[in-house]
Design goal:
Arc Repressor Mutant, subunit A, 2 domains, 15 helices, three-stranded antiparallel β-sheet, alpha/beta, globular, binds iron/sulfur cluster, nine-stranded mixed β-sheet, 404 residues, binds S-adenosylmethionine, 22% strand
Length: 404
């Protein structure tokens, strides 16, 4: 009889191959803080500069210097590994100038092996679109935009405290079309006082705008936000669920594949950077508050950098801004893997679990089969994916994989 030995300690555990490596860069400033947002974003006036909607040039330059130094400090962790994608997220990276982005990307190319076909995405707020600047972003090598539209309805945009209106949203899309053939539109639904028809009107407008990708997020009232403290009247759970169903149907009819909880893409236009997260790939994370996950043959580590821009800059000045670094324990690895992979509509190939975690499938197969029996997952010998029920009750499904 053959016995399967389970690695239970780090000493007999190992990864046979390292996953693909991506690079996330955080830009922590916004013109104004939106009342629903719990991302690490800081209104400009609190960033030590003016409140005229522009980032101070000295601060901008210092931040780019810090990002470059931050990347350099990570290099020993990933020697020789190619970088498959870059995501510039925020905050509002589009507040930075095209010259700064060009300088940053040149510095990245000089320090890591960036694959020639790497997807390079920039998150952009419609309130920051200037035609020349976006031409410059494209010239710098950025080849994908993710535009925070949220809604095309002026009353809703006002209720969300956005700095842009419907016209600015359309202008941003027109400029995006001029310089980019690949862009995502972020929309939110279940907005204050929103009807089903209004939610669908936003989706129809996004489809007509000709984007390659749509992210449709259910507005959540996150702790530590103004909306949490003073909750607006939002649609109840039943209406929000109806909106979700109708949005999915509309996007499917327009040829968008629903490939992740909130993400919809035209054929071959899935967000490669995000797919790497969902397939439990590795990523460096530089900039204020950025997270990283890096695999080694004998461990997988997580890092988080100082969140406050001033702290981050000061720490980088002293030589490094990593606030916490820890190894993901063998007990945490299955949950961490599932937390990402089960967001994908197509789920994952069973052998990916072992490839990414170094653990044998026997660690999770019992829970997978139990979830299959309950109609939350379905699998064959090679592949597992969430059922419609499993996608709807994703948190219940994920709890199964929590460490004891
Ligand atoms: C990190 S934000 C950056 C986008 C960019 N700063 C902007 O807002 O134009 C990415 C997206 O997350 C979504 N988002 C932010 N807060 C949310 C919330 N409380 N509920 C649902 N979606 C949210 C929004 O659609 C937003 O565009
Ligand atoms: S612009 Fe984007 S990142 Fe900034 S506060 Fe608003 S939602 Fe958050």
């Amino acid at each position: 009889m053959t016995t399967i030995s389970l690695p239970t300690t780090r000493s007999n555990w190992g990864l046979t191959a390292l996953p693909p490596l991506a690079l996330y860069i955080h830009f922590p400033w916004c013109v104004k803080k939106c009342p629903y947002c719990d991302f690490n974003s800081h209104a400009l006036k609190f960033g030590g500069n003016g409140d005229d909607g522009r980032l101070d040039a000295t601060l901008e330059s210092q931040y780019v210097d810090a990002l470059i130094a931050d990347l350099e400090s990570c290099l020993p962790l990933v020697w020789g590994r190619p970088v498959t994608s870059i995501f510039m997220g925020g905050g509002t990276p589009s507040l930075f100038s095209a010259e700064s982005m060009d300088r940053l990307l040149a510095a990245i190319r000089a320090r890591v092996k960036l694959l020639p076909d790497a997807e390079i995405t920039l998150e952009a707020n419609p309130g920051t679109f200037e035609a020349d600047k976006f031409a410059g972003f494209a010239d710098a090598g950025i080849n994908r935009l993710s535009i925070g539209i949220q809604s095309f309805d002026d009353a809703k945009l006002k209720a969300l405290g956005r700095i842009h209106d419907r016209d600015a949203a359309h202008r941003a899309i027109e400029i995006a079309h001029r310089h980019f053939d690949n862009f995502n539109l972020d929309l939110m639904y279940a907005l204050p006082q929103q009807t089903l028809a209004e939610a669908l009107q936003d989706i129809d407008t996004a489809i007509a705008a000709g984007s390659t990708h749509v992210s449709a997020y259910h507005l959540t009232l996150e702790p530590n936000t103004l909306f949490h403290r003073y909750p607006p009247a939002v649609p109840d759970d039943d209406l929000a669920a109806d909106m979700q169903d109708a949005i999915e149907a509309r996007l499917a009819a327009a040829g968008f594949e629903h490939y992740e909880t909130s993400a919809f893409a035209q054929p071959k236009r899935q967000a490669r950077h995000n797919l790497n997260y969902w397939r439990f790939g590795d990523y460096l994370g530089i900039g204020a508050g950025a997270h990283a996950k890096i695999s080694f043959p004998d461990r997988v580590i997580r890092q988080m950098r100082y969140k406050q821009p001033a702290d981050y800059l000061a720490k980088m000045h002293e030589g490094g801004a990593v606030q916490t670094e820890d190894a993901i324990t063998l007990e945490q690895l299955p949950f961490e893997f599932m937390l990402n992979a089960l967001r994908l509509t197509d789920g994952f190939a069973l052998n990916l679990f072992t490839e990414r975690t170094g653990l044998p499938l026997t660690k999770v197969i019992h829970e997978i089969d139990r979830a299959c029996a309950e109609g939350l997952l379905e699998r064959d010998l090679e592949h597992v994916k969430p059922t419609e029920q499993g996608r709807r009750f994703l948190n219940t499904l994920l709890e199964r994989f929590l460490p004891d």
